[in-house]
Amino acid sequence: MSNKDGIHGTNVNGAGDSEDKRFTEGEDEQTLTTRQGHPIRDNQNSRTIGNRGPATLENYQLIEKLAHFDRERIPERVVHARGTGAHGYFETYGKLGDEPVENYTRAKVFSGAGKQTPVFVRFSTVTHGKDSPETMRDPRGFAVKFYTEDGNWDLVGNNLKIFFIRDAIKFPDLIHSFKPDPVTNRQDTERIFDFICQTPESMHMITFLFSPWGIPANYRQMQGSGVNTYKWVNKNGDAFLVKYHWEPKQGIKNLTQSEAEAIQAKNISHATQDLYEAIEKGDYPEWELCMQIMEDGEHPELDFDPLDDTKIWPEDQFPFLPVGKMVLNKNPNNVFAETEQISFGTGVLVDGLDFSDDKMLQGRTFSYSDTQRHRVGANYLQLPINAPKKHVATNQRDGQMAYHVDEAPTQNPHVNYEPSLLGGLKEATDRPKPHQPKVEGHLKKEKIERTNDFKQAGERYRLLEEWERKDLIQNLVDGLKPCHQQIQQRMIELLTKCDEDYGRQVAAGIGFTMNDDGTYDMEAGSEITPSFGHFPIEGGSPLGSNKASDAVQEAEQKGHDAHPY
């Protein structure tokens, strides 16, 4: 049958002409669609009220994309698979800086100076598998579960204070680009930079990640951050925008690429060992929790949107205010039962804490808990490591691996619904004054207005110490050298917008010279990378390294002959 009749012939999976391959108007073989066959006309922005949010539940494309992404690995986490953890406690100061903390939040975990709340913390790398080296260049997860008197609160963050993207609809694409190539099964910087060079808001994160900040020396001596913007709500229902920051009392230490490679040759679990041994000998690591806070609102006086997770709130305008400290003082009794099965979710908040319209936060709030139900099971919250350390009584029943029924001692076991006059569960009687933000606007799929993608990246480049800048440039050069020339040129263009010297240094390292008009050309005699459409046998290297192919050859050359047995 001819193509004009809408049948396209054999597909790559071997299906014959009987498979319907019709196209809608403006659609061809390369058109991105949902699994339902709907053409995707905007894959950059989720649907929100106004361009700042909040997102809406009928975001079918967003939810389908995230729900499938959450189920890509069984049972290993899709991201944050490599991790270690410890028990401890959080002790509140009862103040935010010099003010009573109750002025800003009614969350009980922060009230009453000296009060301690049990916690479990899981540190992790993001991209690589469960047994990957802890020296890899990668963001580190920093997730804290607070077992508070009001129920669990999960503060799920990273070591770096920002992220690559500002809209959760791009998260599966981001992670796919950082994961191993589906054909060669190895991480390839060409895939990474192919995505990054078309995502300008990533420049700030890339500047951190490819510098020594991309390889913390260990977990004890790294910072943590909630990354997203949240809200605090006080007893009057007034809300404040907040950022969470964990500052290590042990100091901060990072590694260069060459230092990390030397450590990796000796120990791929050095950070896990470091944390375990420190706690075993009583050298308990501590972090101070500091807050940045501003009035709720859009803040048009700023040159960035305070909900944009690719931005840092300037500390001179929004100082770090200490609110408490965390101490880790007990190792898990069993790694699988605790560290591997612990399940976090950004939607797990207690009264006095609330969500902002941060588009990444709203997507994560669906995705994280959805992942846990898939990975661990529908009753994951009945596991001891995940269960609240307080009264639990629900009408949720059954499902895979139901360990017990979460019913009250005097509850009528026949009644698993509410309301009921026959001895069922009742609603709580207290009524805290709710925070009721006004939401108004057209449903849109648009970027936020104040993107300002390059300013903070350039500022960060200039703030780095000389040795950090040197390592950053070398790591970017090593990662970009195997890439197609179009990708190299696009990255140089973006880095130059951050800082002229930044772009020039990377360009020179790759082999480009700058023209009088500010454009770049490949130096004569330099290797020209292939054009698009050619899929080379040799790909790029893992982040920061340019010696992956050398290692393959070296293994064969240095390998010692042996006789069969």
Explain how this protein is built.
- Its cofactor is heme.
- This is Catalase.
- Heme binds at residue 368.
- The chain has 565 residues and is α+β, with helices and mostly antiparallel strands.
- Among the domains are: 28-71, Irregular (Cytochrome C Oxidase, Chain J); 81-162 and 214-380, Beta Barrel (Catalase HpII,  Chain A, domain 1), CATH 2.40.180.10.
- The chain is 24% helix and 16% strand.
- The chain has helices spanning 60-70, 171-178, 189-196, 203-209, 257-264, 270-280, 335-340, 359-375, 455-463, 466-480, 485-498, 500-510, 548-558; strands at 48-49, 83-92, 95-96, 99-100, 116-125, 140-148, 151-158, 224-225, 230-233, 239-248, 286-295, 321-330, 353-355, 443-444, 512-514, 520-522.
- Strands 2, 5, 6, 7, 8, 9, 10, 11, 12 and 13 form a 10-stranded antiparallel beta sheet that branches. Strands 1-14 form a two-stranded antiparallel sheet.
- The chain starts with 47 loop residues before the first strand and ends in a 7-residue tail after the last helix.
